[in-house]
Task: inverse folding
């Protein structure tokens, strides 16, 4: 079992084995839950990970480069001269 020590500033260091297993990197946030007499830390998924694949069916078969080029052409046509 892994253990940590609470510093004088009430901070802990997540052991490297746990960080690697959960993919935790510097700057990541952890969710904290208190259950009975336990403190549970849970790795949060990044927003980009939570949103991955959202709306993918809308973009199926669409070339993103051509889509953006089309938008730019429309914007250029609407722009005041």
Result:
């Amino acid at each position: 079992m892994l253990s940590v020590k609470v510093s004088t500033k009430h901070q802990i260091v997540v052991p490297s084995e746990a960080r690697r297993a959960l993919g935790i990197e510097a700057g990541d946030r952890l969710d904290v839950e208190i259950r009975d007499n336990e403190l549970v830390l849970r790795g949060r998924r990044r927003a980009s990970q939570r949103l991955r694949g959202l709306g993918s069916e809308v973009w199926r078969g669409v070339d993103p480069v051509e889509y953006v080029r089309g938008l730019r052409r429309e914007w250029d046509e609407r722009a005041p001269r």
Summary: The first strand starts at residue 30 and ends at 35. Strands lie at 30-35, 38-43. The CA atoms of residues 69 and 75 lie 10 Å apart. The first helix runs from residue 16 to 22.
